[in-house]
Amino acid sequence: MKWLITKYLITAAVVVLVSEVAKRSDRFGGFVAALPMITLLTLVWLHVEHQPDVKLANHAWYTFWYVVPTLPMFLAFPWLLQRLGFWWTLGSCALITMACFGVFALVMKRFGIVLL
């Protein structure tokens, strides 16, 4: 149980760090947020918990493919925010991401990469 609480605290600290940096600098906050810190932490947690190398490799592999369809959301958010307000923009971006992911998964399936 102590290990689980430690993982929660460290992972939460990373999220808080990103939000605090973003309050001070848009550019640096975006840069820090774009770093794959959660993925790196997850890989560390899996390694420390003695998961097989194939599990770590698969996590990195799928993370790469799952990031790609999220990218349009980052372009849509600033544009929609001016027109819809925060909550409608957030919801719209979630829908955009789901639609992009669905289309992307279908396209990638043709290349032998199964995401769903």
Written description of the protein model:
The longest helix is centred in the C-terminal third of the chain and has 24 residues. The two termini are 32 Å apart. By secondary structure, the chain is mostly helical. It is flat. The chain has six helices and no strands.
What helical percentage do the residues reach? over 70%
Mean pLDDT: 93
Low-confidence stretches: none
Question: What's the end-to-end separation, in Å?
Answer: 32 Å
Task: State the total count of DSSP E strands.
Answer: 0
Q: Which strand-content bin applies to the residues?
A: under 5%
Rg, please? 17 Å
**Helices and strands, in N-to-C order?**
HHHHHH
Number of helices: 6
Shape: flat
Q: What is the structural class?
A: mainly alpha
Q: Sketch the major β-sheet.
A: none
State the gist of this model.
It is built from six helices and no strands. The chain is mostly helical.
Which keywords apply here?
single chain, mainly alpha, 116 residues
What is the strand and helix layout of this fold?
Layout: H1 2-24, H2 26-34, H3 37-48, H4 53-67, H5 71-84, H6 86-109
Helix pairs in contact: 1-2, 3-4, 5-6
